[in-house]
Specification:
155 residues, mainly alpha, Rna Polymerase Sigma Factor, Chain: A, Arc Repressor Mutant, subunit A, two-stranded antiparallel sheet, 7 helices, globular
Length: 155
């Protein structure tokens, strides 16, 4: 495992840092990623590179961290997931984040569920469809339509 750590620690760190822009958090979660990897090495089936598997673990740990803190809003644009912190003085301020979240909450119930399951829980469309008793395609289309509504309302 030491060799795996040496070969992949920087990759995992930079992956996390690119998503959170917080050096301390990226360092902490890099360490936690390798601890989780040790605990679940039996699940690694070799179908992908070890670095890919480690980055997946890291991504899930970061999402868990953000979800626990509840001061992040996740906005998915095409295939890019952007985390916008309400403590950062960037393009959005707290009022704008609150407004976006309120718009998500005002979506029709099924759309809101799909958006929350996709973004906050990081579930695949197939899993969302299964959870809601619908098809994967239905989940994709519903998410896409919700995105269009949110974009239209923000203009």
């Amino acid at each position: 495992m030491e060799e795996i750590f040496q070969q992949n620690a920087k990759i995992v760190y930079y992956f996390l840092y690119s998503m959170c822009r917080d050096e301390n958090l990226a360092e902490d979660l890099t360490q936690e990623t390798f601890l989780k990897a040790i605990e679940s090495i039996h699940r690694f089936d070799g179908s992908c590179k070890i670095s890919t598997w480690l980055c997946q673990i890291a991504k899930h740990l970061l999402y868990q961290h953000w979800t626990k803190r509840k001061n992040y809003l996740f906005v998915e644009l095409d295939e890019t997931l952007i985390a916008v912190s309400d403590t950062e003085q960037q393009a959005m301020n707290r009022v704008e984040l609150s407004d976006v979240w309120n718009r998500v909450q005002s979506l029709p119930e099924k759309m809101k569920q799909v958006v929350e399951l996709r973004i906050l829980s990081d579930l695949a469309f197939k899993e969302i469809g299964q959870m809601l008793g619908k098809s994967e395609n239905w989940a994709r289309v519903t998410f896409y339509r919700a995105k269009l509504i949110l974009i239209k309302e923000s203009e």
